[in-house]
Design goal:
Length: about 350
């Protein structure tokens, strides 16, 4: 792949609000179901129950299968959610932080009508040991509500870098109120240095360019998470949402063994109308390249952050204040490169 320039045509007309063709409904469905963001660790928490009780579990790492195992045994003296009926329907949920987006959640079965549930279940993560050691385990207990109004019952957070891996025994731990690190997801993932500009149609001469263009110049990234002693083998992916097709997808080359990679890669998307800029979102994500799977390191989303795209509510229109200001400056300064340093974040 060229490291100097990529060019791709991007057509927005199929996302207009007013239906005009028979295939429109399927197009709109694909827009509204675009993936790319992860719900909060505490999504669906409507409860106001004080955390109490204890949870018994054990941790182990299976070197042969390269698998992290959380053996959830049982809980005792959990808070009662439904006081009228004197019941709770608890289950246990785990995340690996800060990278809950990549590793996802694991959860046990639900035990009904008990504040002393017994699970004896193993929650498993396929993950390299050196990657695991820069994570934290967030284990939380929840009351399951049929309507999705789940209530938080308590949690414990463990720094796996300092965990005693010779300890494979079941132990009891007190459940605590929510921790700020898990609620806010505050973590340092590095900083991306980039420039962008918008070239309106016909701004360089008659019919030049024939359609609007967004130019994205990915210069370098600093202070990436170091996943292995040799550094990290990173590359950058780019999409212009709501399009997640192969036409929209671009990526840089892989820079090996460097936590401060220099990409110097330019991408050009044409097919823009000026009014599309308020509904589109440029998503740039940084990944660690491995043979079997790529690991998400962090990303940015450049847009207006309105939560809407072509009149549809979408979770990826979630740009931070810095990202919104960067995009707005580009919109107001046609044909000018806008430079910026933006922090990478979880998406």
């Amino acid at each position: 792949e060229s490291d100097t320039a990529s060019e791709i045509s991007f057509q927005f007309n199929k996302h207009k609000k007013t239906p005009s063709i028979g295939s429109h409904s399927s197009d709109m469905a694909s827009v509204s179901s675009v993936s790319g963001s992860v719900l909060s660790v505490y999504s669906g928490d409507f409860g106001s129950v004080d955390a109490q009780g204890t949870v018994e579990f054990a941790l182990d790492y299976d070197e042969k299968n390269r698998e992290f195992q959380v053996h959830v045994s049982q809980c005792r003296d959990l808070a009662v959610v439904d006081e009228k009926k004197g019941r709770s329907d608890p289950y246990v949920k785990t995340y690996l932080l800060p990278d809950k987006a990549r590793m996802g959640k694991r959860k046990t079965s639900v035990k009904k009508r008990t504040v002393n549930p017994i699970y004896n279940e193993v929650l498993r993560y396929k993950i390299e040991k050196m990657v695991l050691l820069i994570q934290k385990l967030n284990l939380s207990v929840w009351h399951n509500d049929p309507l999705g109004r789940n209530s938080f019952l308590g949690e414990i957070e463990i720094d796996l870098a300092s965990w005693d891996w010779s300890n494979r025994k079941l132990n009891w731990y007190p459940l605590k109120p929510r921790s700020l690190s898990a609620v806010n997801g505050v973590d340092h993932r590095g900083v991306m240095n980039l420039s962008i500009k918008y070239v309106p149609p016909g701004s360089l001469g008659p019919k030049n360019p024939p359609s609007g263009e967004v130019h994205i110049w990915v210069k370098d990234v600093k202070d990436l998470l170091q996943l292995r002693p040799s550094g990290v083998d990173s590359f950058v992916k780019c999409y212009v949402l709501p399009d997640t097709s192969k036409k929209s997808y671009q990526k840089t080359r892989v820079i090996k063994r460097d936590t401060n990679p220099v990409f110097n890669h330019t991408i050009v998307y044409d097919g823009f109308h000026t009014e599309d800029l308020k509904d589109a979102c440029v998503e740039l994500t940084v990944w660690d390249h491995e043979k079997l799977t790529n690991h998400f390191l962090g990303g940015i989303r450049l847009g207006l952050g309105t939560g809407l795209s072509y009149g549809i509510s979408v979770d990826w229109m979630d740009s931070t204040q810095e990202e919104v200001a960067f995009w707005q400056e580009m919109m107001s300064a046609a044909n000018e490169w806008i430079e910026g340093l933006l922090p990478l974040r979880s998406l």
